[in-house]
Write a structure and sequence with these properties.
Largest sheet: 2 strands, antiparallel
Number of helices: 36
Structural class: mainly alpha
Shape: elongated
Oligomer: single chain
Number of strands: 2
Distance between the termini: 111 Å
Helix content: over 70%
């Protein structure tokens, strides 16, 4: 151990460069506590926000994987992509929230806030270990805690991955600094590696971690030698492995909004994004959940994109000219660059030109520059500078208070989907995505006509927007405008041939149009594109029943049961398919299981009664019909079926009353007319019977034609 300590002394020329500030930290617990209190006040209004339809639906509200910690679900967390990302720990955190309170958005928002508070504590300790100066630590930590750029990360449930990766990322950095401070004890390096691994399991943006370690080595004047390379090898190896995983999960499809730009134009996105992030870290204006790619004019990109490289060069030139604090300035600047470069459109990964959530960790580097600038002024002994120090403190205080106000205001934007996209549209009136997603939110709120207006606007702005066509098709389907719905779904499929939802929805439209074979064909296409689609199996099974493929229907419902073993509707539907196959005992068992799972399932009682009728158990059938009607007095076909069983049992008056009741509830029920004709025939009312059978035939009940010929013609 002593030999290692000697080696340490040779590597780190000046141990004081790594501040020994643990005791100072302990004496200043009240400072991070005060910052945490301010943060809670600033972000408290996020706790009452709802889910949004921007990824929250796919990550949480419609994600059945998070509903339990079953072996299958845990396996899915570690093997399946979620929104094209490999985020197993993030999914586990969602599952924990679901376990705690189901789909209560307050629970999910509370976890986000708690993670942000923990990250604030880690930033405080990290800065104390780096600088040992409480002024820098407080400025950086406070800016990190309340900056409006971080509102998106805390207020949006789907940015849980950013909060979680940041927690492990910061903890890993702290352990690496302890590794440097404590004589290169391997336990700190191993713990840092483990925490880095957890960070990667939370979000792939953590892959930049090894570069940050090299930056720390530079900052603390470590020699570049073999030992340093050996230290970093496992970190770089993990980054490479997770980089491969990330690329394989994202697939090879280009981001749609990036298609149509030349290579040189895409290159300009990099300096523009950098300048935008730097500028907004200082002056957080034009913040938005979504920043669309620029609209190309005949002359190319907007003017500011061509100015961005020169603004960036100016920033670099300023850094070069400042010699007194060059190392500190380089450290802050490179920390920002190392942690942001993965999202700078080197590989396009997002449908927006910038995203504020990407700066959650990188902004620490920029805030460090602000803190260092303050201490540089504060340490100055120049008379003119000394005279303005009080004004600088006042200005900084006003700036912090203004940031708090803006952040609380930004949190309100995330209240729900409509408020979110209202804000995007206010900033970007030509953002088709915002109109489409706001339309989805309004559709969910049953504001169907308003949703249609938003979908129309989205299509007007982006005529090749496949999702907008699909969503407008849903509105037309709601209005029973089947032809218009069919046209929109077909257009969506033309634009995106792998669009499983559009195939599924077109299948539903064909189902409503009684084109069951066409519906089955579309359901088959949808199932090819999507691994598991519960509603698809159910609807395809029903379409197969109507098309006479009872065996295929049973197979679909059985397949669905493997995923939803307690879904009583599926047992009811499979029973109907088995009845079509004349497997009456199998049908009886499935109807009974449906009732066992849901004792208030009126349709299952009525359907089981029908099977008992076919088995000539009219007494048992009537008992089931009685229960069905007790549960649902408006179940028309239950009255009709009970009337038939009463007729078979000899209670003609009761049968007539029941069938009349059925027709009063559903006047177009052809089978009820046919059955009432049978009752009238048994009561020797031949004219009334013939009239009923005629109505049954006119309503499409072909079986009535034979009896009409026999008794009435």
């Amino acid at each position: 151990m002593k030999q290692k300590n000697k080696a340490t002394d040779k590597t780190v020329k000046n141990p004081k460069q790594i501040p020994s500030s643990v005791s100072k930290i302990k004496s200043k617990y009240w400072i991070p506590a005060a910052i945490l209190i301010v943060t809670i006040i600033v972000f408290s209004n996020t706790l009452n926000n709802d889910f949004t339809n921007w990824d929250d639906n796919k990550n949480v509200t419609e994600n059945t994987d998070i509903t339990s910690f079953s072996g299958n679900n845990i396996h899915a967390f570690f093997t399946n992509p979620y929104m094209g990302m490999y985020v197993p720990l993030t999914m586990i955190s969602y599952a924990i929230d679901y376990k705690a309170g189901g789909l209560n958005p307050h629970i999910f928002h509370r976890t986000n806030l708690v993670l942000h508070l923990l990250n604030i504590v880690l930033v405080f300790f990290l800065l104390q270990l780096i600088t040992g100066r409480i002024e820098i630590t407080v400025i950086v930590t406070l800016l990190f805690a309340i900056h409006p750029m971080n509102s998106q990360t805390v207020a949006w449930i789907s940015t849980r991955s950013t909060l979680l990766y940041a927690f492990f990322f910061l903890a890993a950095l702290i352990n690496y600094l302890y590794y440097l401070k404590k004589g290169y004890r391997w336990k700190f390096l191993i713990l840092s590696l483990f925490l880095f691994f957890l960070s990667l399991l939370s979000k792939s943006q953590a892959m930049a971690f090894p570069l940050v370690l090299l930056l720390f080595d530079y900052f603390f004047s470590r020699k570049f030698n073999v030992k340093l390379l050996i230290e970093k090898a496992p970190f770089f190896a993990l980054s490479v492995v997770f980089g491969i995983i990330t690329l394989s999960f994202r697939g090879t499809d280009a981001v749609p909004d990036v298609i149509g730009y030349t290579f040189s134009e895409k290159v300009l996105f990099i300096p523009f994004s950098l300048v935008a992030y730097i500028f907004k870290s200082i002056a957080p204006v034009l913040l938005s959940a979504y920043h669309p790619y620029p609209v190309k004019a005949s002359t190319g990109l907007p003017f500011e994109y061509y100015c961005a490289p020169f603004a960036l060069l100016l920033f670099v030139w300023i850094i070069y000219k400042i010699k007194k604090y060059r190392k500190e300035i380089l450290f802050g600047s490179l920390f920002f660059l190392c942690t942001i470069f993965l999202v700078l459109h080197v590989i396009s990964i997002n449908s927006g030109i910038t995203a504020e959530r990407y700066t959650y960790i990188p902004c620490i580097g920029l805030f460090y520059l602000i803190g260092r600038a303050y201490t540089g002024i504060n340490d100055s002994r120049v008379t003119k500078i000394n005279s303005i120090k009080p004004y600088i403190i006042i200005g900084l205080t006003v700036y912090i208070l203004a940031l708090c106000f803006v952040t609380r205001s930004r949190n309100e934007v995330w209240k729900d989907s409509v408020s979110l996209y209202d804000d995007v549209i206010l900033k970007y009136p030509d953002a088709a995505l915002a109109y489409n997603n706001r339309g989805v939110a309004k559709y969910k709120k049953k504001q169907i006509k308003d949703a249609l207006k938003d979908y129309n606007k989205a299509i007007e702005l982006s005529p090749k927007y496949s999702e907008a066509y699909n969503n407008r098709g849903n509105v037309y389907l709601e209005f029973k405008s089947y032809k218009a719905a069919l046209d929109d779904y077909t257009k969506a499929i033309e634009l995106w041939p792998a669009y499983s939802d559009a195939y599924y929805n077109r299948g539903n439209t064909k189902y409503e149009m009684r084109d069951y074979k066409g519906a089955i064909a579309d359901y088959n296409k949808a199932s090819e594109k999507k691994k598991y689609f519960a509603e698809l199996y159910n609807n395809r099974g029903n379409a197969k029943i109507y098309s006479g493929d009872f065996k295929g229907a049973v197979d679909d419902f059985t397949c669905l049961m493997a995923f939803e073993p307690n879904n009583y509707n599926v047992y009811n539907n499979r029973a109907n398919a088995k009845a079509g196959m004349k497997d009456l005992n199998g049908a009886m068992a499935d109807f009974s299981r449906a009732i066992e799972l849901n004792p208030n399932f009126s349709e299952a009682y009525s359907n089981r009664g029908f099977i008992k009728k076919d088995l000539n158990d009219h007494k048992g059938a009537i008992e089931d019909y009685n229960k069905a009607i007790e549960l649902n007095p408006n179940l028309a076909y239950a009255y009709n079926n009970r009337g038939f069983s009463m007729m078979e049992s000899g209670d003609l008056a009761g049968a007539l009353n029941d069938i009349n009741k059925s027709l009063s509830l559903a006047s177009g029920n052809a089978e009820a007319y046919y059955n009432r004709g049978l009752v009238n025939q048994k009561m020797n009312k031949i004219n009334e019977a013939c009239n009923d059978w005629e109505k049954a035939l006119q309503s499409g009940f072909s079986k009535a034609e034979e009896i009409l010929k026999k008794y009435c013609r």
